[in-house]
Design goal:
The protein is α/β, with parallel strands linked by helices. The protein has helices at about 40-45, 70-85, 100-110, 130-145, 150, 155-160, 160-165, 170-180, 185-195, 225-230, 250, 255-270, and strands at about 5-10, 15-20, 25-30, 50-55, 90-95, 115-120, 210-215, 235-240. Strand 5 (about 90-95), helix 3 (about 100-110) and strand 6 form a beta-alpha-beta unit. The radius of gyration is 17 Å and the shape is globular. The structure holds D-malate. The site of D-malate has 7 residues, from loops. The site of D-malate (MLT) has 7 residues, from loops.
Length: about 270
Amino acid sequence: MTHSIQLIAPRGNTISITACGTGRTVILLHGFPLDSRMWQKQLTALEDRFHVLAIDMRGFGGSTLDEQVYSIADLASDVDIVRQHLASNEPIVLVGLSMGGYVALEYYRCFGKHLAGLVLANTKPQSDTDAAKLGRLKMADEALQQGTWAAVAAMLPRLLADNTLVNDATTTQFVELMMRSVRPATIWAAQHAMANRNDFTSSLKTIRVPTLVVTGQLDPISTPENNASWSQQISEARLHVIPGVGHLPPLESPDEFNTILIEFLNSVLG
Ligand code: MLT
């Protein structure tokens, strides 16, 4: 059974968390433009063995957006506030998907001593090209001028594989519902934070915790080829490519995603 926690952080912002289970702590960080609801099937699968905290990042879900401009490092600090207040005293495992992975890598840089393991799902360590940055800033402005859905609708077929879009109406509608529920100012702020994020490529070799790298075979945003290349630089990384799915394996192929996640968590947290 999950419950919702509203944590008031030291600078007054509210961080909303969906929590369940007891034991060693696993923190889940969602992708863009989604929220902690994307982890529903992982919360259910993990709650028997682990204490699971799915965080809504600034402005998403139930968390407040108090400042228009923030950085990925600020989001990593929010994660550490959650860890300090809600996690057990032992090192945690951080699971970040895409934007959540950018935050997880930044968390490693700033607070790595608190990590027992890392799961980098459908993400990448590279920062944006100039063209990608421009695309983000365009979407950010469109969200303010024309509304969230006008700005983000074109992302839906990049998030889900064709097979999911055609044959899994429940997942497709759920992802669309999450995307539509994001406020324009939240889109703007997150796109600016991602456009300005650090490149982590040259620091991958400093990662010294067991790391599960996972992506979808058909993910156009975090391709298997790119994952195979950068994950080799992490000494304790193992790569898993989930067949037939796109950018959101936790939703598109929850059983396979959960199986490899639980296997990894058991090996790291015992
Ligand atoms: C995500 O799923 O979080 C986004 O695709 C990340 C991005 O826009 O780079």
